[in-house]
User: Fold this.
Amino acid sequence: MVGEKGPCVFCEIVEGRSPAYRIYENDRSVAILDIQPFTRGHTLVLSRRHVGFWHELEADESASLFEAAREVARRIMRSLRPDFVCMYARGRRIPHTHIFLVPSLGGDVLDRFFNALEGFQEAPDRLAELKQPATMEETARLLQARG
Ligand SMILES: [Zn+2]
Assistant:
């Protein structure tokens, strides 16, 4: 597909007009190594058809994409032995459906990202508690006290 910014980079790869480290394909999906990996084995699973977002795929295309992702994740687990393979889909940078498969080990960038996200999810309760009158009064008393 040709958009405002020229040909779609993933369509070019699917059609074989651009090089890529292709590691798996099936009838409706192609898996390639991400050329800017977070970790070793970071893979993108692309739909063969140009579709902006994964939720716009036809049912058989989404089944194919998920099956390709599962197969590649098993290969990653067998070959690279991470703790697990994280899967997500976004689509802001390149609007052609692709699933990220990122092998993850404790302490790596993805692990730290999700730990930060979980901390953020849990934060509102702690922050709300800080605003409670009893907590505010206790904090004020602590700071008013002379050492
Ligand atoms: Zn495309």
User: Anything to note?
Assistant: The CA atoms of residues 38 and 109 lie 7 Å apart. The pocket of zinc ion is lined by residues 1, 8, 10-11, 50, 96 (CB under 6 Å). The first helix runs from residue 9 to 14.
